[in-house]
Amino acid sequence: MPDAHAGTLAELLKQYRTRAHLSQEELAQRTGLSVRGISDLERGLKQRPHNATVRALVQALGLSAQEQAAFEVLGSGAAPSEVVRPAAAPPVAAGPTRAHNLPAQLTSFVGREREVAAVVELVLRLDVRLLTLTGPGGAGKTRLALRVAENVLARFADGVRFVDLAPISDPGLASLEIARTLGVPETGALSPLNAVAAHLRDRQMLLLLDNFEQVVLAAPVAIQLLLACPGLKVLATSRVSLHVRGEQVYLVPPLTLPDPLQPVAVQQLSQYESVQLFVVRAQAGKPGFAITTDNATAVAHICRRLDGLPLAIELAAARVRFVPPQTILARLSSRFALLTGGAQDLPTRHQTLRATLDWSYDLLPPAGQTLLARLAVFPGGCG
């Protein structure tokens, strides 16, 4: 039983971490801190962490207002007369199991709390039935959509179905791909679209259509399904909006970035999502990696130079296994040559930064490609 009068920050941190069933490694991933940093705090080697570190720990551990107050008091170096003891974890209520085919994730989900909350709210709004997450390649649209789908799964009686449209480029095949994913058998009596509509007509379901930019001309398919199936909602990801009736668009923003006008402080960097992601992915290849006074400025500049784009940051962080952040920053002038080597099991478009841009370029009509090439002479943009 945890001590009701924990006397040190070290004791309280360990109690809260144990209650949350987190290892030091898992807590480090959630906060963007190093494993050694967590260990030092729990061993009492660091007794007055920076405010940003305390905030990151409070958020990762899910502390109540009372627990947060006690934690902050101890973190300031004061000795409170009484500290709120970690409450026992409440039993998880057994709820109905919802069907889904959401792909399992092999890496941690970093940051995006505001975005997840905002998109969940939109998905659950009665007046929103088609929601499109838009943004450039590598912005994290798919990962955000999957996280949201997990969060709202219990709200849909017939669950969630994930349909990856990336393998197809012919809009005429969209209905067939949806039918195949849903397990709707082909019949000569009905078209694939009508067969899917008949299958979903009486269901309450969220349909997640990923990579819709591949077949954006098939957007009317989504509308026809929504008209035929009153219990259906569609969550789409696309590099462009679908431009159909009833569409609600949500532009996925970049990860939060260090302020370029403020001096870089090591302890404050962990509050920025872009830095958190860089650290977590760097640790995957080099477990001992941590933000230090030597590399903090370089990491902050890398995240800013890459505009908070998750894919680019992950590719850059993967290079930490071979070279320090200072070297990565120096080589960013040749970022297309540097930002390569993504995981081999990822789609080709996510293995290099150039492949991500090529994917978008190839989706343009010839006139659009010509216009883009002419605009390339304006490196600072044009109005």
Automatic annotation (TrEMBL):
SUPFAM superfamilies: lambda repressor-like DNA-binding domains (SSF47413), P-loop containing nucleoside triphosphate hydrolases (SSF52540)
Gene Ontology molecular function terms on file: DNA binding
Alphabetical list of SMART domains matching this protein: HTH_XRE
Coiled-coil blocks: none
All copies of domain HTH cro/C1-type, residue ranges: 13-68
InterPro entries, per the entry: Cro/C1-type_HTH, Lambda_DNA-bd_dom_sf, P-loop_NTPase
Protein name: Transcriptional regulator, AfsR family
